[in-house]
Design goal:
Elements (H helix, E strand, L loop, with lengths): L7 E2 L1 H12 L4 E9 L15 E6 L2 E6 L2 E8 L9 E3 L1 E6 L4 E6 L6 E3 L5 E8 L8 E3 L8 H35 L1
Parallel strand pairs: 2-11
Antiparallel strand pairs: 1-8, 2-3, 2-7, 4-5, 5-10, 6-9, 7-8
């Protein structure tokens, strides 16, 4: 899905940003929460209304001086956790303050299921503050839960092939030694 979502900075997020600036610091964003709430945020929110998961930002890049691209990677849901419609998300700073939020009264982003992982990327524009006043702490480099299984399977196959090749080479050497 590639749709422009209206991401709104919260009042508490603005307060945290300006407080950090007043102290000569950057505000560090480090987690993204996702949930099932459907509403029109007004910026007064201090938490997601129905947060289901909150994970470290896996990767980020500054694609323009005022635009941050942040990505999270989620494994399929644990069978004990009910599936849900992912319809709200928020970005949190290192102190757990909700910096920015998105939700919509009707639309959902996707459905979180037991059978599929999720890679979610959001571009966040910060145009009314100095671009260097916000930094992002990414958990990376990490192996995404979306590719960990296939990567492990490929590694196992490569090791098995190497083992068989070495075993065959040893057999050839034994045959050559016996023939001499």
């Amino acid at each position: 899905m590639s749709e422009k979502l209206q991401f709104l900075r919260t009042s508490v997020g603005s307060t945290a940003l300006f407080s950090a600036q007043d102290n000569g610091l950057n505000l560090t964003l480090c987690e993204i929460g996702i949930g099932a709430g459907r509403y029109a945020p007004d910026g007064s929110e201090e938490a997601l209304s129905q947060q289901k998961e909150r994970v470290p930002i896996a990767a980020y890049e500054r694609i323009l001086p005022n635009i941050l691209r942040m990505t999270i990677a989620l494994s399929p849901l644990d069978p004990e956790i009910p599936q849900y419609n992912f319809s709200e998300f928020g970005v949190y700073d290192e102190d757990g303050v909700l910096f920015g939020i998105y939700s919509h009264p009707v639309n959902i982003i996707t459905t979180r299921t037991h059978s599929a992982g999720l890679a979610f990327t959001v571009d966040f524009e910060v145009s009314d503050v100095p671009f260097d006043s916000i930094s992002v702490e990414a958990a990376g480099p990490i192996i995404s839960p979306l590719i960990a299984g296939p990567l492990a399977a490929n590694a196992t196959a490569a090791i098995t092939a190497l083992h068989l090749s070495l075993k065959n080479q040893l057999e050839i050497l034994k045959i050559k030694e016996t023939a001499q």
